[in-house]
Amino acid sequence: FVPSSLDGGMPTTASRSTTTSLHVATDPRKTAASSSSYPAGDAAGGEWSPSSWKNAVAKQMPVYDDPAELERAVSTLNRVAPLVFAGEVRSLHEKLARVTQGQGFVLMGGDCAESFKEFHVNHIRDTFRVLMQMALVLTFGSAMPVVKIGRMAGQFAKPRSEPNEVIDGVSLPSYRGDNVNREEFTPEARRNNPNLMVDAYYQSAQTLNILRAFSTGGFADISRLHAWNLDFVEGTEESSRYHKLAAKIDESLRFMKAIGIDTSKPEFTSVDFYTAHECLLLPYEQALTRQDSTTGKWYDCSAHMLWVGERTRDLDGAHLEFTRGIGNPLAVKVSDKCTPEELIRIIDTMNPQNVPGKLSIIVRMGAEKLRKNLPGLIRAVQREGKAVVWISDPVHGNTRKSDTGFKTRDFDSIRAELRAFFDVHDEMGSHPGGVHLEMTGEDVTECTGGVSAVSDETLGSRYNTACDPRLNGSQALELAFLIAERMRMRTGLPPL
Ligand SMILES: O=C[C@H](O)[C@H](O)COP(=O)(O)O
Ligand SMILES: C=C(OP(=O)(O)O)C(=O)O
Ligand SMILES: [Mn+2]
Fold first, then answer.
1. Each residue of 325-341: pLDDT tens digit?
2. Which of 90, 113, 238, 372 is most deeply packed, by most CB within 10 A?
3. CATH architecture for residues 78-150+220-491
4. What pLDDT was estimated at residue 388?
5. What family name appears in the similarity comment (predicted)?
């Protein structure tokens, strides 16, 4: 049973996402209208429509030089199949609603920017695999359900600090993600090309197809838990920790079988896996926004969950205007620049009816600022009685440039921010509801430190990211153990 609408408040009945309802309209006449321009104006508070964001200021949005070309790309996207379906979106919403009540933990992870050049089934498999390992560690460690969400199948568009990049005195528009322009430093590559949105859609469709197969086709079967270990992690301390935990879980499974529990049921053989990305490139998001024929609600069918970034979360901006009208679970990223008053106004805009599970707050500010600022944000939310999921993004507040010229992050600073996040929630009596990471299953050398001991000197050996540095598989697993230990402490369980 999937309730047709969550607007009435807390859902009461659990459902697995496999009970998908296919009610989202695919009729192009019911898709969001296309338009090729988005002038500044004032939209906030008025009538919402999938295109009402065009009346507000859209920061970080590419300007396309050929309106007819944009129009053609958008009209193609208006006709493509939705990537996700309303029933799946609602099942994620229900799980997040439980997290607001302290029942569960959210694990979000994936590339900073998906790219065309890195696209390969093995890349998706490796990220999915390490997320499965992490989820296992977290579920067993915390004795709580873990909500698994990939920054995958749509995480392309990037907000940038500088509109232009200058190399050897030559200035070109910054790279903004493979669905906007290309990384190569030439005027042709850096031109905003609307057709890239269509290419990114088709890559996302392939990615989602693979993810659905991995989630339900046997790969995620818990009896294969040893097979999820990554080859390059084998032999390390993290790997032996993982195998020890896996052996304990094996034993529990044998016990369950012995007392007659059927471990071939979907609860053991498949996982509910969801997708999310930054809701940045609004012409794309609008085109994928469809009306659910059973409820009349609009869903952005490009992903199950969408978040608004730190750089585009203005109260009167286009991104809040767009997201306030869609039925998907939402998130907003906040740095130390966000005041408690501003946060409450953001919550009132994105989740005016205070529906539990509708909105997550992703905190990203570095350990020191977090210790100073997060208590005030939590206090305001508690005072106003808002239901939110608190998620830590311990990576975006910790970016630095190495002496060797790479944009990187230190494992120690990431760990320090996570510790601070847990400490503050302990002090405030609130629920640390999840973690959001830029990571990959591959053995990249993009972040320094951790047991894998990447250093400034070795960053260059496998630095493959299209934007921000990602944790590699072993660094990500190491963090999962750290989080699991903190969750155990909170519930009074002994160390793993
Ligand atoms: O992913 C986040 C942002 O897009 C990224 O950190 C911006 O990076 P920049 O400061 O290099 O533009
Ligand atoms: C742009 C991002 O983050 P933020 O909005 O927190 O800077 C991101 O998640 O890649
Ligand atoms: Mn990033």
1. 999 999 999 999 999 99
2. 90
3. Alpha-Beta Barrel (3.20)
4. 98
5. Belongs to the class-II DAHP synthase family.
Instruction: Report d(CA 490, CA 426) in Å as an integer.
Output: 8
Alpha helices per DSSP H over 297-410: 318-323, 340-350, 367-384
Residue 347's Cβ-side half-sphere holds a number of Cα atoms within 13 Å equal to: 29
Report the distance separating Cα 449 and Cα 128, nearest Å.
23
Residues with CB under 6 A from ligand 1: 112, 158-161, 467-468
Q: Domain locations in the chain?
A: 78-150+220-491
496, exposed or middle or buried, with CB in 10 Å at 0-12, 13-18, 19+? middle
The token duo for 47 is 């009538």
The half-sphere exposure of 471 on its side-chain side, counting CA atoms within 13 A, is 32
**Ligand that lies nearest to the alpha carbon of residue 174, given by its number in the listed order:** 1
Distance 481 CA to ligand 1 centre (A): 28
Residue nearest to atom 7 of ligand 1 (CA): 160
**Binding site members for Mn(2+):** 112, 396, 438, 468
* Per-residue model confidence (pLDDT) at position 354: 98
Q: Which of 437, 393, 326 is nearest to 93 (CA)?
A: 326
Helix (H, G, I), strand (E, B) or coil at 471: strand
The pLDDT assigned to 320 comes to 98
Half-sphere exposure of 484 (CA within 13 A, CB side): 24
DSSP 225: G
Ligand with the closest atom to the CA of 151: 2
Residues of the chain with pLDDT under 50: 1-42
**Confidence at residue 239, expressed as pLDDT on a 0 to 100 scale:** 84
